[in-house]
Amino acid sequence: MSASIPALVGPDGSTPLRASPGRRGMQASLSPGAEGAAFPYEAANPFGQEMGGWLPWIRSPDGELDTFRDRMVARSRDLVRNDGWAAGGIDRTLDNVVGAQFRLSAKPDWRALSRFDKAYDETWANEFRTAAEAEWRMWAEDVNRWCDGTGVQTFAQMMHLALRHKLIDGAALGVLLWEPGNVGVGAARYATALQMIDPDRLCNPYEAVDTASIRGGVEVDRGGRPIAYHIRRAEPYDWYLAVESMEWDRVVRQTPWGRPVVVHDFDRLRADQNNGITVFAPVMARFKMLANYDRAEVQAALLQTIFSFFISSPYDPEDMRNALDAGGEEDRLRFYEGLRSQWHKGNPITAGGARIPELFPGEKIETVNASRPHSNFEAFEHAVLRNIAAATGNSAEQISLDYSKTNYSSARAALIEMWKTMSRRRGDFTAGFPTPIYAGWLEEAVETRLQDVMPANAAPFAEYRTAYSRSRWIGPGRGWVDPLKERAGAVLGLDAGFSTLEQECAEQGMDWEENLDQRAREIDAMKKRGLPMPDWAGGSGPLASKTERPE
User: Are 216 and 210 in contact, with CB atoms under 8 Å apart?
Assistant: First the structure.
């Protein structure tokens, strides 16, 4: 038997009180002029003039993406294929995050490993790093491209492709293959290879709707952790692979001992999200409007050029209509038009390849005066480009490559803000894609090629995978707006201890040890040739009297 709820009465013991307003009270509170009083937040008001028609739905992260993913990706790809601004925005991001070279800087965590054995110290870390980076270059830059499952790209080129997929399609996808049959003299040095996968192939088997366990091709456990990926065996729109395109492979995320198998990287915008979204999604409509406006202005200017003048007849339309209705006049009008036609055919006078117009008696030239492009076109275009730049993390000048209105201060500020975004993109991308690949490759390298730098009592790789695989990735340099000022500032930072040579070199896409080795070789070459030492080599300039010379 349920307990009864005591009625609420007023102070006089007779008037019932309501805990919340009833329907009539709500209707009264929502009467005209009282909408604002009913909602503590203006953003929740569904009746306001500004937001009355703005009623978006609440959806799950996968519900927002998976249902509409193909349409958004198709539009994003079309933009990059056919719109110069979109293609430029992607290229600038790729150039700043990955660049032409994408180099490994191994950073084994010897402090964590030393808890297993004291043989792991800083000296060991330097030896391991040098050996691991050398072996990595042998794999990543193999001239026969054995690092690539398709045998066509170096590792840096595959990272360029992976980030491109991530920006345009929303996700980067790859599978670490194990191909021991390729290892041998004159063939692969390692059995590990990376197979890049088009994100379109990651989807639910037979294109079924999402379920509690499979969402957009990603199979998750009860806690939401990805455990496997369902990948089509062929692209869905290749007719010659129609059978394979309707077959799926279930590929586990990692082996039982923790070696990565599938590498799936995307920017998570919400918790419980299992796939990514194109970087153009927030500005796609503006991109399309700008493209349409730009095309319309160009077409209008072209038409103005083609039809900049015309030849008019002395007969207006009303005269022609009256003539056609007047029997005998019709014959005279036709005779007149025939003479005009014969005249123009028989007078092709040219000078220097240009025809000189000679008018028939009674004709005159009329011109078309129209201002194209529109006077507001440049301002509108610049405003839209700034909106697009804000969404992609670039500056408007980078997307348009127009620096004609930029001074040093604004260029420097834009560069600093842009570099923050690019550094964050590089950090997210390297943590999600190349670092797991390096960890998978390093497991094989430790077992086969790096035994000579491992301690006698080596820590198990599977248990200390994170410590062994700790690394940084060196991409393109940040560059300078004013090299003199900024390099002087870097030197001051080094002298004051605010920065390190490694940090300064990494910001410019260089390896600090390679720089020191090269400088040592250059100093040695100057000494052998009896050249005066410059300031950076410890001398006092090219005219120094105390320059050390060979004996």
Answer: yes
Which pLDDT belongs to residue 550? 36
CB 293 within 8 A of CB 377: yes
In angstroms, rounded to a whole number, what is the distance separating the alpha carbons of residues 196 and 231?
Answer: 12
3-state secondary structure of 318: helix
- CA of 163: how far to CAs of 23, 92, 297, in Å? 55, 12, 34
Looking at the structure of the chain, the number of domains it has is 1
254-299 confidence digits (pLDDT tens)? 999 999 999 999 999 999 999 999 998 888 888 888 888 877 777 7
Instruction: Decide if 354 is inside a domain.
Output: no
Residue in 317, 310, 313 with CA at minimum distance from that of residue 366: 310
Predicted structure pTM score: 0.76
Residue 310 lies in a domain: no
The answer to whether the peptide bond before residue 373 is cis (omega within 30 degrees of 0) is yes
Closest CA to 432 of 290, 304, 276, 318: 276
Residue 326: other Cβ atoms inside 10 A: 12
The closest alpha carbon to 391, from 283, 291, 270, belongs to: 283
Residue 537 to residue 520: CA distance in whole angstroms: 9
| Token pair belonging to 184 | 């041998």
Structure tokens given for 144:
């026969």
Q: 151 in a domain, yes or no?
A: yes
Q: Write out the two tokens for 104.
A: 């490994």
Range of the domain at 116: 62-280
155 is a domain residue: yes
Question: What is the number of residues in the chain?
Answer: 551
AA identity, residue 59: R
Residues 6+ away with beta carbon under 8 Å from 515: 501, 505
